[in-house]
Write a structure and sequence with these properties.
With 126 residues, the chain is mainly α. Helices cover 60% and strands 0% of the residues. The protein has a domain at 7-25 and 60-126: Arc Repressor Mutant, subunit A (Orthogonal Bundle).
Length: 126
């Protein structure tokens, strides 16, 4: 494996860890959502269930806590960039996130790369 493949693999692992961290942070806040009747009808299971239960992503709790501890120890601006990229605006374009942070797109990309490297170093992925 050459160095470019190692870098790409390490970057993918860091991004996966940060996505898991974002899902772990989001969690569900509030009372449980009632999805069936509270009466006896709520316990009825049809014989005509075709698809089974819908798959659901569950974040890795321990990995989320580990990344949270790492992110807490990062410099303030690196924390802000990671939070914006993965928690607050995960589906926005880089340009939009940079505008919200009131920085240029080039600086946003550089700061995000720096934050990824700091997280990778703390995760001991080098």
């Amino acid at each position: 494996m050459d160095t470019s493949e190692q870098t790409r693999t390490r970057g993918t692992v860091v991004q996966d860890e940060l996505r898991n961290w974002a899902w772990w942070l989001a969690g569900y806040v509030g009372p449980p959502v009632q999805d069936k009747a509270a009466s006896a009808e709520g316990n009825y299971v049809s014989d005509e269930i075709w698809d089974g239960h819908e798959p659901r992503y569950e974040p890795d709790q321990l990995a989320g806590e580990r990344v949270e501890e790492i992110v807490r120890n990062l410099p303030t601006f690196s924390r802000m960039v990671l939070k914006a990229a993965y928690v607050q605006y995960p589906y926005h374009l880089e340009h939009s996130i940079a505008q919200r942070l009131k920085i240029s797109t080039d600086r946003y990309k550089a700061e995000l790369k720096k934050a990824h490297e700091l997280v990778a170093k703390s995760l001991k992925l080098d």
